[in-house]
Amino acid sequence: MIDSFYAALNAVVPFLCYLALGYASRRAGIVDEPFLNRLTRLIFAVMFPFMTFYNIYQGERGNLPSPALLIFCGASILIVQGVLLFIVPRMVRENSRRGVIIQAIYRSNFVLFGLPLTASLFGEEKTGIAAMLVTVVITIYNITSVIILEMFNDASAGRIRPGPLLVKLAKNPMLQGCCVGLIFYALGVRLPAAIEKPISEFAGMTSPLALFALGGTLRFEAIAKNARTLAAALSVKLVFLPLVLVAAAYALGLRDVELFLVLAVFATPVASGSYPMAQNMGGDGELAGQFVFLSTAASVVTLFVWIFALRQMGWI
Predict the structure, then answer these.
(1) Which residues, 6 or more positions from 248, have their beta carbon under 8 angstroms from its beta carbon?
(2) Which of 24, 117, 145, 238 fits a disulfide with 302 by CB distance 3.0 to 4.6 angstroms?
(3) How do residues 207-223 score in pLDDT, each as one tens digit?
(4) How large is the average pLDDT for residues 87-109?
(5) What is d(CA 274, CA 270) in angstroms, rounded to the nearest whole number?
(6) Span 135-145, pLDDT tens digits
(7) Of 304, 270, 265, 310, which is closest to residue 8 (Cα–Cα)?
(8) Measured between alpha carbons, how far is 58 from 133 in angstroms, rounded to an integer?
(9) Domains in the chain, ordered, with CATH?
(10) Which of 314, 303, 282, 276 is nearest to 3 (CA)?
(11) pTM score > 0.85 for this model?
(12) Cβ contacts of residue 85 below 8 Å, gap of 6+?
């Protein structure tokens, strides 16, 4: 029980520290909002391509997840997106909020939570399975997030025009990094250490910088006006969705580390990348940032409860 709590705590607390430092820096006058907005654009355009490239490039080939796990996670993400695309526009009037809410519910910070939680609970030898699953999940996330946010920005008004959409997909920095990473991974190309090291360090800087920028732009008084939306969406994201999908995965025969990885895909906090992405693609950036912040704080409790419950039942 204590191990489960510390595993969740150790994964979440660094994120809260990055947010707190950004918030404190703005309050102290060290940074201001124009600077933070420029930093957010820099992170989206320059830093995220390094992260998406490196997360795929470093995937290990020797410790593969089962095809059942890959198919289940990939299909589940797409099915959840389809359900949300049907339901959310009927419940939310503002176009700029629709894509943000959909993204917040299905898109988790699996990239940054999955590996450390897997290592903490199952040992370093099992992290290769998580790393390979990251390749599938991040590819789906990045492609579909661009499509969904594009559907619900003010210019498109819910309509998808294939030509302009393909151009925006090709120009999206996250997808560019993702595609180059897939090419390198598929061909087995390895970079010289002198090049690989700075890429890995830029990739490692991305989330801390994104969370710092987010912390600096937080307005706690604005959270109150979005309280109902935040509470409803995060209840689905952190409680209902993991409950349904973990039960379904168990019924289909996934166990131990693979069942835990299903939990990690769907029950970890909202991806930090969703904030700069929404901010730069016409979505409600303020609401997206609130989703990242509140889901990160709440996951200290929810991840502990999930891990503890599944261990008590003998499922992981």
Answers:
(1) 72, 76
(2) 238
(3) 788 888 878 877 777 78
(4) 91
(5) 7
(6) 788 888 888 88
(7) 304
(8) 12
(9) 2-312 (1.20.1530)
(10) 303
(11) no
(12) 102, 148, 151
